[in-house]
Amino acid sequence: MTNSIEHEIRSHSAGWAPETEPGLDVSVVMPCLNENATIGKCVSKALQAIKKLNLRGEVIVGDNGSTDGSQEIAIANGARVVSITKRGYGAALQGAISEARGRFVLMGDSDDSHDFAQLDVFLSKLGEGYDLVVGNRFRGGIQPGAMPLLHRYVGNPVLSGIGRLLFKSPVGDFHCGLRAFRRHSIDQLRLQMLGMEFASEMIVKATVCGLRLAEIPTTLSPSGRKRGSHVRTWRDGWRHLRFLVLSSPTSFRRKS
Q1: pLDDT tens for residues 53-96?
Q2: Domain limits for position 56
Q3: 166 band by pLDDT with thresholds 50, 70 and 90
Q4: Which residues, at least 6 apart from 191, have a Cβ–Cβ distance to it below 8 Å?
Q5: Integer Cα distance of 96 and 83 in angstroms
Q6: For the residues of 93-105, what is the DSSP string, one character each?
Q7: Is 109 exposed, middle or buried (0-12, 13-18, 19+ CB in 10 A)?
Q8: Contacts of 2 by beta carbon, 8 Å cutoff, 6+ apart
Q9: Residue 104, in any domain of the structure
Q10: Quick check: 79 and 38 in contact, CB under 8 A?
Q11: In-domain check, residue 8
Q12: CA distances (Å), origin 92, targets 61, 104, 179, 183, 229
């Protein structure tokens, strides 16, 4: 942990309203829907990363209606579980983030594909003054079997490229789920997408609103779950594309 982030965490900045000052340094949030094979590992790894840095922290699981005992496993491993009735990746994360008490927030998936031990790297980057730090799996490494070939060579590069082109964003991996941010900065964006396009919405709005963005290399490991992914390639890809186009200042939307 660098001196800059330690100073940032331990002191109050002028831009932080006292009435919203959380009592913790960092919150790790993760969405969950039937992840009983991996949620316990993810919670434990996140808590270990917090403890290693000697920070005041918590892990919050935004549960989206699990029926496989994921909630109990998460609680047993030290997490706080928040039940989210609205369905969707974005809905689960929005619910968890709204309950976060940390000044900084790290979000990551609960399928054991993300490296929560990188918490120190993300926080150090925030300590340099950035508002949102996004992982880049293409720069850090995608292990065999961790990402479908269609997503790796077509879907993610194309959609991220469109996002960079339309919004002049510095982020090269719009869909990496491992990212960290200043809680008060992201709250101002009023994020509302309920599905997977929530990941793109955060980057687009942060860019348009002039927040400071950065990315760091991060690795993606094969998921530890025993079932298929929640991602639906064509449906979610279309939703991402539609959001990017309709949000673009150069969109050909009909004027009302």
Answers
A1: 999 999 999 999 999 999 999 999 999 999 999 999 999 999 99
A2: 23-247
A3: confident
A4: 90, 94, 198, 201, 202, 205
A5: 9
A6: HHHHHHH--EEEE
A7: buried
A8: 124, 127
A9: yes
A10: no
A11: no
A12: 8, 18, 15, 16, 16
Measured CA to CA, the distance from residue 105 to residue 92 in angstroms comes to 15
pLDDT confidence of residue 236: 63
User: Residue 19: CB partners within 8 Å, gap ≥ 6?
Assistant: none
pTM of the predicted structure, to 2 decimals: 0.81
Closest CA to 175 of 200, 140, 195: 200
Q: Is residue 16 part of a domain?
A: no
- Assign residue 101 the CATH number of its domain: 3.90.550.10
Asked if 191 contacts 94 with a C-beta cutoff of 8 angstroms, the reply is yes
* pLDDT, tens digit (0-9, with 9 covering 90-100), for 180-215: 999 999 999 999 999 888 999 999 999 999 999 999
Cα–Cα dist 110/92, whole Å: 12
Is 76 inside a domain boundary? yes
DSSP at 223: P
CA distances from 76 to 33, 70, 108, 157 (A): 17, 10, 19, 38
State the total domains in the chain: 1
